[in-house]
Design goal:
31% of the residues lie in helices and 23% in strands. By secondary structure, the protein is an alpha/beta fold. It has an 8-stranded mixed β-sheet, sandwiched between helices. A 4-stranded antiparallel β-sheet has the order 2-1-4-5, with helices on one face. The structure holds adenosine-5'-triphosphate, iron/sulfur cluster and magnesium ion (MG). Magnesium ion (MG) binds at residues 59-60.
Length: 327
């Protein structure tokens, strides 16, 4: 059994044995826009949990809430239990001891997090300090393909490829304070398919070496399938299905998950953005019933009035009045 499967096998879609992170009824509002609505999920130690959904479904707002890195206008409710603390209620001063240390973030665009005018060696020194002299750390950096960065540390960031810089930032985020949770919000969107595959391999390797838990955000179900143990599918600010990758791909229950599957690019086109599902998600988070009702081919009358409750079907958690219940 591969490492990924052994992690996946420990957990059903709905619950995990040993949660590092428990998100309960999390909501994020920006003024009158409810970007995230009553979202609950758990992440086990050493698990990679994917969040997938169309643009605007609330994935980044969930990540921002976990790191408490949202604009001042954002209103947070619910609870995020992590290492004995509720991060939603933590004062900012205490949150600063968690952010970057216990919970680390990988930015989408590596260049925005690096100074263009300081050498890579200097910047590694800022983040890693004496650890840079540590043999184990240097071996880890070399093992994850960063030997050229170590060898050419007098160069500026522009002397390296986007993929090398992204891998370096992931390594820095993971190694500098040995966090237990890494938040990766679309870390490969700007990279080509080959480099994307290297970054995904790196995340799997770091998870094994450091026993990291990772929340991995992507538009792309094919990427999620390569790297995640379990997946949460978001639509209109709601988590509509949570399942192991295996179960999600063999028995998708929610009509939106099924639509995402059928919109997946073919193998030859992997890495591209999701193809469009008919209709638009615009305004979905303001609907009184199921946010997917206007686009759903299985919608019942009740769907337009009442938001379905979370229900367990097989190993999956599903919010739907008329889910696929077959094997
Ligand atoms: N700072 C903000 N102020 C007001 N509304 C916001 C803000 N940030 C996000 N939103 C709104 O919240 C909703 C969720 O946005 P979010 O960025 O979390 O979605 P996403 O799933 O990450 O989308 P994408 O795939 O495009 O990154 C959207 O309707 C978006 O317009
Ligand atoms: S609740 Fe109704 S509208 Fe929503 S996904 Fe299920 S069947 Fe479709
Ligand atoms: Mg986003």
């Amino acid at each position: 059994m591969t490492a990924e499967l052994s992690h996946a096998a420990r957990a059903s879609g709905a619950a995990v044995d040993d949660p590092l992170l428990t998100v309960a009824d999390l909501s994020v509002r920006y003024g009158r826009t409810t970007a995230v609505n009553d979202v609950s999920f758990e992440v086990a130690r050493g698990e990679i949990f994917g969040l997938v959904g169309e643009s605007g479904s609330g994935k980044s707002s969930v990540c921002g809430a976990l790191a408490r890195l949202l604009p001042r206008s954002a209103q947070l409710t619910g609870a995020v239990q992590f290492e004995g603390k509720n991060l939603v209620a933590l004062p900012e001063k205490a949150m600063r001891r968690v952010r970057g240390r216990r919970v680390a973030l990988v930015p989408q665009q590596p260049m925005t997090s690096l100074s263009p005018t300081s050498t890579i060696g200097r910047q590694m020194q800022w983040y890693l300090g004496d650890q840079l002299e540590n043999r184990e750390v240097r071996e880890t950096l070399a093992a994850i393909g960063l030997r050229p960065v170590l060898d050419r540390s007098a160069n500026l960031p522009m002397g390296f490829s986007g993929g090398q810089l992204q891998r370096l930032l992931i390594a820095i985020a993971s190694l500098s304070h040995k966090p237990s949770l890494l938040l990766a919000d679309e870390p490969t969107t700007t990279l080509d398919a080959t480099v994307q595959a290297q970054v995904l391999r790196l995340l799997l390797e770091l998870r094994e070496r450091l026993d990291l838990s990772i929340v991995y955000v992507s538009h792309d179900l094919a990427v999620i399938a390569q790297v995640c143990d379990r997946v949460g599918v978001m639509y209109g600010g709601r988590l509509v299905e949570v399942a192991t990758v295996q179960e999600l791909f063999t028995a998708p229950r929610h009509p939106y998950t099924q639509a995402l599957m059928s919109a997946m690019p073919s193998r030859s086109q992997r890495g591209e953005r999701l193809r469009a599902i008919p209709g638009s998600a615009s305004g979905a988070n303001r609907l009184p019933g199921c946010p997917f009702a206007p686009r759903c081919t299985r919608a019942l009358e009740v769907c337009h009035r009442i938001m379905p409750a979370a229900e367990q079907i097989g190993g999956s958690m599903v919010r739907c009045h008329n889910p696929e219940v077959g094997p």
